[in-house]
Design goal:
Strand order of the largest sheet: 3-4-5-2-1-6-11-8-12-7
Number of strands: 12
Oligomer: single chain
Strand content: 15-25%
Mean pLDDT: 89
Length: 467
């Protein structure tokens, strides 16, 4: 019996060695490529800071909202401060139970209008439409029956006048140049159907007239660790996948899409929790199956500032929702995996998200349980395991800090000495502590995952420091 257990533990050890070497290699490659691309983009931007020949692509900015009265006004003021000429703002109030729509209507002096909206993609019924043209761009407010975020975005697509639409969250703000920078790939290349931007936590960041007035690491520990996590994610995998048109996720907080192609693909899927990823994967499928030339890009210098959860319970709810959405998207489009028709998307992007995102919490929790069992049965070399875990934490921390400081430097932010110490001190906690907490949450996410598929997953909001 002991020999059987020894064989089992040896096999598990070999599997985890391959698993961790694969992840470490991917992380090193992605951070290296990401950092080099960011510095190359910084050098290009030093020579070219405006759109070529001052051309502008007309853009409809969609802001779906549900119970966002605390943040919605600051979000809209940030949109009015954009350095861009040709856009409109459409706020879709998705059956809020607070005074979200009243806040918007009063703050921007909007009037009720009788405006017919053709439903090119399915969505719930309209209750009222308000408009104002007292600002540099028109603002439209649509009240509708509750149907979820995807349904609200579909309503915004139906109401949009322009050929491209940008979706963003109602608890986020854009920098003055963010719209210009996320549109730039459309002007520079043909066949762009979607562009993703970078998302950074804005907790304790002071923003004035669309520009960063003061940048601080969040005072609370949990948002601090999310800053490191966000920078590693947006610097690493997304830039790497962008090199071969392999992006299969664009954050719902900040993404630009070609309206005609999205309508052709059927719009957002209202039955999934991960409407952002599901749409991007569906665009890959739609374009390849209809032989439509296309490109999905990532604009690393286009930045959206969003609120990171400050409570662990809110963070767990958020990540549970994200993992259910990931599961729904990947199972719905499972034919992509290792399918030559989808090129590197099927062989690299889908495979990475399957192994290192969808299945990773189960693998990591299984590994932890196996390690504990081996320790109890006296099969574990404690000194070797401590050394192994120490190297893992140190390696991951170095790459996280590389991503963090690269991002800070390339967008010309400055850190206090205290912030530097905070980042260095918390990177190991994020890798070894928060990661395993969230792994447990994600592992249990699919239990009851079919409940409230269209729910918004509200978290506690605070007022954004926007002046």
């Amino acid at each position: 019996m002991r020999e059987a257990f020894q064989t089992f533990f040896n096999l598990v050890g070999a599997f985890f060695t391959v698993y961790m070497m694969g992840y470490a290699s991917f992380l090193f490659l992605s951070v290296t490529v990401g950092a080099s691309c960011l510095y190359a983009a910084k050098r290009r931007n030093a020579l070219k800071n405006e759109l070529p020949n001052q051309y502008y692509v007309p853009v409809s900015i969609l802001v779906p909202a549900h119970n966002e009265s605390v943040t919605i006004e600051a979000t809209l003021h940030s949109l009015l401060a954009l350095d861009y000429k040709l856009y409109e703002i459409i706020v879709v109030d998705d059956g809020s139970t607070d005074d979200t729509w009243q806040v918007v209507q009063k703050a921007f002096h909007m009037v009720h209008v009788n405006r017919p909206i053709q439903r090119k993609v399915p969505c719930q019924m309209i209750e009222a439409v308000f408009e104002t043209r007292d600002y540099k761009v028109p603002i439209t407010l649509i009240r509708k029956k509750n149907g979820g975020k995807a349904d609200a975005l579909n309503m915004g697509i139906n109401a949009a006048q322009y050929p491209y639409f940008l979706c963003m969250d109602a608890d986020s703000v854009l920098q003055r140049d963010s719209l210009e920078k996320i549109v730039r790939p459309v002007l520079e290349q043909d066949h762009i159907v979607a562009v993703g931007g970078a998302v950074r936590p804005c907790n304790d960041v002071e923003i004035e007239n669309g520009q960063i007035l003061r940048y601080h690491m969040p005072r609370k520990i949990l948002p601090c660790m999310q800053v490191l996590e966000y920078d590693r994610s947006f610097l690493a995998a997304r830039i790497l996948f962008d090199q071969f048109n392999g992006s299969i996720i664009i954050s719902g907080a900040f993404g630009l899409f070609k309206k005609s192609v999205v309508i052709g693909a059927g719009g957002y899927d209202t039955t999934t929790m991960g409407e952002d990823m599901e749409l991007v994967v569906k665009l890959h499928v739609f374009c390849r199956e209809h032989n439509i030339p296309y490109s999905i890009r990532y604009a690393s210098d286009a930045i959206c500032w969003t609120q990171a959860p400050e409570k662990l319970s809110d963070l767990c709810k958020q990540r549970r929702r994200w993992h259910i959405g990931l599961y729904q998207s990947m199972t719905r489009h499972r034919r992509i995996l290792a399918n030559p028709r989808y090129g590197m998307v099927g062989f690299i992007s889908y495979f990475y998200f399957l192994i290192y995102e969808l299945l990773s919490p189960y693998i990591e929790v299984f590994g932890t349980v196996t390690m504990a069992l081996a320790l109890w049965m006296d099969f574990l070399n404690i000194r070797f395991m401590v050394l192994y875990l120490g190297i893992y934490v140190l390696y991951s921390s170095i790459l996280s800090l590389t991503a963090f400081f690269t991002r800070i430097h390339t967008i010309d932010l400055t850190l206090t000495f205290r912030d530097v110490l905070k980042a260095i001190g918390l990177c190991g906690v994020e890798v070894f502590g928060l990661r395993f907490i969230l792994a447990w949450v994600r592992m249990n996410a699919l239990l009851g995952g079919k409940k409230k598929q269209r729910g918004w997953g509200q978290i506690e909001r605070k007022r954004i420091n926007f002046k």
